[in-house]
Amino acid sequence: MSPLASSRNLPISLEQRLVLERSVAILAAMAHPTRLTVLHALAHYGALPVGRLQEISGTEQTALSHQLRVLRKADLVRATRLGRRILYDLKDHHVAHIVEDAVSHARETTNAPRAEAAP
């Protein structure tokens, strides 16, 4: 069942509901340490070959291939073949913005003072 399936009483259109469900799928695809590391690297360095993504992520080739397949299926990255090499790049600038905003938010909340627990 979709995370938004219980939200059927919301006063939103079917189109908006579908967009929100797609947004959930996009965020879910990003919600993995290796995938987020890959997206972050691509946002910073641009198109990279699989070997360089392996080095950056510290992930074995087979595991990385699986994670890249998830990102392609979610339409977050694109693969371009150059001879025997395959370069991966972000699908568009929106992906970079989402990644950068998430990283910035995490950085801010990591450095923020913690609220003391009530007695």
Description:
This protein has 119 residues and is mainly α. The chain has a single domain, classed as Winged helix-like DNA-binding domain superfamily/Winged helix DNA-binding domain (Arc Repressor Mutant, subunit A), CATH 1.10.10. 59% of the residues lie in helices and 12% in strands. It is built from 5 helices and 3 strands, in the order H-H-E-H-H-E-E-H. Strands 1-3-2 form a 3-stranded antiparallel β-sheet. Strand 2 and strand 3 form a beta hairpin. Helix 2 packs across helix 5. It is globular and about 50 Å long. 15% of the residues are buried. The mean pLDDT is 89.
Task: Provide the CATH top-level class.
Answer: Mainly Alpha
Number of discrete domains: 1
Intertermini distance: 40 Å
Round the mean pLDDT to the nearest integer and report it.
Answer: 89
Task: Summarize the entry for a quick read.
With 119 residues, the protein is mainly α.
How would you describe this structure in keywords?
single chain, 119 residues, mainly alpha, Arc Repressor Mutant, subunit A, three-stranded antiparallel β-sheet, 5 helices, 3 strands, 12% strand
Task: Outline the secondary-structure elements.
Elements: H1 14-30, H2 33-45, E1 48-49, H3 50-57, H4 61-73, E2 77-82, E3 85-90, H5 93-111
